[in-house]
Write a structure and sequence with these properties.
Helix content of chain A: 55-70%
Distance between the termini of chain A: 79 Å
Mean pLDDT of chain A: 79
Oligomer: heterodimer
Largest interface: A-B, 22 and 30 residues
Number of helices of chain A: 12
Radius of gyration of chain A: 25 Å
Radius of gyration of chain B: 20 Å
Number of helices of chain B: 11
Order of helices and strands of chain B: HHHHHHHHHHH
Shape of chain A: globular
Shape of chain B: globular
Largest sheet of chain A: 2 strands, antiparallel
Largest sheet of chain B: none
Number of strands of chain B: 0
Structural class of chain A: mainly alpha
Number of domains of chain B: 1
Strand content of chain B: under 5%
Chain lengths: 288, 271
């Protein structure tokens, strides 16, 4: 074979490889996005299989879990119960392999509590973090937040926030927040304070976006709650409809619910939205 | 002893002249470079991820060094019969084993030190760009963890020497040493799992198999003892006691293996 014919054949094969590689990648993408969820090897086995590289395995599994959720989000696919189960197991295995690893705890808070509607599962994982990183105020803060926001167990939430407040580096207002929580319980204003802190703490752009949307919705609710309070003070009774607040000038216009729901008022004077502030699956919400 | 030193020097020089060293250095550089690229995918614990990757890069490189270069340095003499030439000189067989061991250990130390220096560069670069995300990092722990990677390989070298003194071919020595290494890095997790409540309740293995595993755990060194990656990654406390006991544990195994190798080697005939 001469040099020229050799190079020609290499060139031809490379040209042939391009469409082949394109179609293989396309096929892989189709298979991957169609796959319901991966299988995570339980930690007692993956520990052994890591051949002494436990930390590295935890990093890889974390990347896999994040890209799995990211892939679903980008493709606009709804997370199924099986998908969530995969994520929960992943985070459990990652935190078993390296219980000091901070990122999976943030992921548990950001996804399991907020999107999966599994705040208690998130708390279970976060409790493991509190045990191994006892000086990190954010972990008890998250558990307290979940108990307050999703579970509505205010005394337990106040306990965790108080624990967080006593740890080094925690913001000063946590003490006040804990006290306020113990006293007022489920007011939207308390949720607003919490949420602002959550946004401060969130690094992940996707989570930040979600939280900002939630904050916008809550700010709307707080605005309406304030108008309702003024209405009750002046009129001596709750407004019959939301439109009454605008008609009588207690509020300029009803703020828009970024989730696309309609505002309503509960018997106890709390404001709710028909969207339940949810894009997809959130089972428990404040005010329900 | 002078003979051992001379042989160690020759072995060391032979090791660093080996061309596969470049391949291994390239591979490690690739992993260390990958570290910089991958760190960006993590939200917070970038320090931990970097330490994990660097320690694993050192470990992989160490395994390759010992199995591709180190093993060759001792078995080549036997395979190519050049050992007859060496043993015809006034050098005892124990001196031969000891000299070879020291030579390979220094070769491993030299290579790992170079890789460690490169890994420090990647850490400094990452720290420069993500200073806030190295909150738990400690250089002392990092160097200690790297030192224990070396201790682990000093022990693995003794295992390789031991099997090379028994086995008739390099390949058999490779398979045996690799198997011991795999058992050594996994045995702790297996034993602890079997002692966990779930495993006891479910009776995962029979009592006789469990006894067998206990014997294995006694005979084969537990390599997890030398794994300080998690401590380095999270800046956890490493007590001087732990360092001393781990060093003693490695020393006893190394002494045992080299003595056994010397005894077997002394009785071996080379035709």
């Amino acid at each position: 074979m001469t040099l020229r014919s050799g190079l020609l054949m290499i060139g031809l094969l490379l040209a042939l490889l391009y469409p082949l590689s394109q179609s293989i990648w396309g096929e892989r993408y189709r298979i991957q996005s169609g796959t319901p969820a991966g299988y995570v090897i339980p930690s007692q086995y993956s520990r052994v299989l890591s051949l002494g590289n436990r930390g590295l395995l935890s990093d890889l599994l974390f990347l896999k879990a994040v890209s799995f959720f990211g892939g679903r989000s980008i493709a606009g696919q709804k997370m199924t119960a099986e998908d969530w189960n995969y994520l929960v197991t992943s985070i459990e295995v990652i935190t078993d392999l390296d219980p000091y690893f901070l990122d999976p705890y943030f992921l548990a808070e950001g996804l399991l509590a907020w999107d999966a509607g599994l705040p208690l599962k998130a708390n279970e994982i976060l409790d493991k973090g509190i045990e191994h990183r006892p000086d990190d105020w954010r972990l008890p803060f998250f558990v307290g937040f979940n108990l307050f926001y999703f579970v509505q167990d205010y005394p337990a939430a106040a306990d965790y926030i108080m624990r967080a407040a006593q740890l080094p580096g925690s913001p000063d207002y946590l003490q006040t927040l804990a006290a306020r929580l113990a006293y007022y319980g489920g007011k939207s204003m308390t949720a607003l304070l919490f949420l602002r802190e959550m946004i401060e703490e969130a690094d992940d752009p996707l989570l930040r976006k979600r939280l900002a949307k939630r904050l916008l919705a809550l700010e709307g609710a707080v605005k309406i709650e304030a108008a309702v309070a003024k209405y009750i003070e002046a009129e001596g009774q709750s407004p019959k409809t939301m439109a009454a607040l605008v008609d009588k000038g207690y509020i300029d216009a009803l703020p828009e619910d970024p989730y696309g729901g309609k505002w309503g008022l509960l018997q106890n004077g709390r404001v709710f939205s028909t969207s339940k502030f949810a894009d997809h699956v959130i089972e428990s919400e404040p005010g329900n | 002893m002078r003979n051992s030193v001379a042989l160690a020097k020759i072995t060391f020089l032979e090791g660093i002249r080996n061309r596969s060293l470049f391949g291994i250095a390239l591979f490690s550089l690739f992993i260390l470079g990958l570290n910089i690229a991958i760190a960006g995918f993590f939200m917070r614990d970038i320090g931990k991820v970097s330490v994990d990757m660097n320690m694993s890069a050192l470990t992989f490189a160490g395994i390759l060094l010992i199995f591709f270069v180190g093993l060759n340095l001792i078995t080549k003499d036997i395979d190519k019969k050049t050992i007859q030439l060496v043993l015809s000189k006034p050098i005892s067989r124990f001196e031969y084993i000891f000299g070879k061991y020291i030579g390979i250990v220094f070769f491993t130390l030299f290579s790992l030190t170079l890789l460690l220096a490169m890994s420090c560069v990647t850490l400094v670069v990452l720290m420069h760009f993500n200073a806030d995300y190295f909150f738990d990092f400690s250089w002392i722990n990092y160097f200690l963890a790297a030192f224990f990677v070396f201790v682990k390989f000093a022990l693995l070298t003794a295992i390789v020497i031991f099997f090379s003194s028994i086995a008739t071919s390099a390949f058999v020595a490779l398979i045996c040493s690799l198997s011991v290494y795999i058992v050594g890095v996994t045995i702790e997790d297996v034993i602890f799992y079997l002692r966990s409540e779930i495993a006891i309740q479910e009776k995962v293995v029979s009592a006789s198999l469990e006894r067998f595993l206990d014997v294995i755990a006694y005979l084969i060194p537990n390599f997890s003892v030398f794994d300080l990656t998690m401590e380095a990654a999270h800046g956890l406390l490493i007590t001087p006691d732990r360092v001393l006991w781990s060093l003693l544990y490695a020393s006893v195994y190394i002494a045992l293996l080299l003595l056994a190798a010397a005894v077997i080697f002394a009785r071996r005939e080379f035709f």
